[in-house]
Every structure is written in structure tokens, then in C-alpha cells.
């Protein structure tokens, strides 16, 4: 089978397509013929050895796939050859076939494409855990979403609206503002590109406050980090919750006196660890996502697809922070 492999730390240009032996389903496993693999920001970090997990090389990036079960291993009774599935993999998704434990599988609903299926679990799974378990978002509250046109950003807008919140979406361009508005944001604002000096940081804080209104943000969803974090924190409501999701703009240094002045919480969001530690709670979240998907309240937005040979280009576009919605690599038709 073909695989897009990282053999040494580096950027997307270092990835190569190679032949590997076909995987064999072990006990409690199935082999999935991969149809689509979505690209997420961890794929940028993992090939550069900057992610918290460092799989042994050579490895394929790609943490979210859809496909069709090709074979089943010993003891597998609830899945059959031909079943359409979606799964998160951690890494290893940019391959033609992959062996996975049945515990990582969910059924791809009828009528949903493989590209859509490969775009659901990671972004929406992260976000529903963030908003409900960590942010305790309630109906009528105000949610500020940074990086609101990316995969997790659009998921946060849709889920925020589904849970009855007022959503303020912050983005870096008018094109991204239009995407956020289309996803249901009540208010959009376009922020300038970092880095910021002290005056620019204060101006951005004022911009956030003006968009949010006098009460501020009850919950801030931050998958961006960097110089955007402190101005956002300055706009938080009394006893608000600041959700730390990711750092494509860099790891910020927050002045902790602000947490005292606002009596607010800064909450880390590590969905992968949550899913591993509490699989029952995670499964309940995923089942709720399927219901919201069926009811039309969420819908993964796939904005660009890439051929398998161009998987590195998809990762490069993600690295440049140019993506709106989800980028998906088509592994097989």
C-alpha cells in the first residue's frame, strides 16, 4: 500500500510517498481502506517534532479518517466488511489502509460523504468537550471565538449557537468573516495580524470589548494563542472561562493578575486525553454530535480537497494559516 511518510523532522516538503506492507487486523481490530483524511494543525506540528506526541519514524501524519472496513480480526462481531466508518488515529491516517481497534470507530451515517465524515470527530469532538465540560457554556451567554473561520472555529460557532449562546467571531480577513457569518455568528470582527506592541494590544482589547458589549465574554474559545490571547482575556466577563485550545500563533504569557481582577478561569482543553480517560463521556458527546448533524445544526465545511499525492500541499496550506473550514486529502475514490 502507499503511505505519505515523515522520515525526518521538517516541513511538508520533506514528506515522501512510499510503499509499505498491507496491515493485518489483530485481535479486536479491523483494517480500514481509507477513503479520506482531513488535515488538522497537529499534522503541521507532528512532522516537525513539535507536538506532544512523537511517533517513531517513519510515520504518516493524519489523525482523522473515513473509509470502508476491508477485513476484521479475531473477536470482532459488531463490525463487518463493507461498513462505512470514521475514526481518529492520532497519526498514521495518510495511508491507503490502516489497522484500528474497534473502540476508535464510529459509523458514517448514510448519505454523508467520506470527506464530511473525515471532518467531524476531531474538530467537533474537541469543541463540544471544550464548551460543555470545560467552559460550561449556558443558554443566553456570550461566546467569543478566536480563529473563527478554521475547522475548530466554525465548529465552535455552530455548537455555540446550538447551545443557545450569542457568538462573536474574531477572524483575520473579510473573507473569513463572511464564512463565520454564514456559520451563524451573531457578530464578526476582523483583527489585525500579530505581532502587537503594547498600544496595538490595547487597541485589540478595546475592539473585543466593543464587539462583546458591556458584559464581556462568558466563554472565550482560543485555538490561536500568541499575541491575541491577552487582549481577549481582557475582554472576559466576571467569572468567565478562557479555553486554551491551541497555539498556531505561539504560546502566550498571560498576566495572571487579570484572572484575579475578573475572578475568571483559564482552562486547558486536551480532547485526546479526555477521550482516552473517559471514553463513555466522549462517546456520549459524539452521539450528541451525530444528532445535531442529523438535525442540520452542525455541518462540517469542506472547502478544499487534495489528491493523495498532494497531501503535503494540504499540510503546507494549514501551516500558512490560510485554511477556511476543513482541508481533506482524498486517498481513494
Short description:
With 333 residues, the protein is an alpha/beta fold.
What can you tell me about this protein's structure?
With 333 residues, this protein is an alpha/beta fold. It contains eleven helices and 15 strands. It has helices spanning 41-47, 114-117, 121-134, 151-162, 174-182, 198-212, 229-233, 257-262, 271-277, 279-294, 311-319; strands at 2-5, 16-19, 29-39, 64-72, 84-88, 97-101, 105-107, 142-145, 166-171, 187-190, 217-222, 236-244, 265-268, 302-307, 326-330. Strands 3, 4, 5, 6, 7, 14 and 15 form a seven-stranded mixed beta sheet that branches. The chain has a six-stranded parallel beta sheet with strand order 10-9-8-11-12-13, with helices on both faces. Helix 3 packs across helix 4 (151-162), helix 3 crosses helix 10 and helix 9 (271-277) crosses helix 10. It is globular, with a radius of gyration of 20 Å.
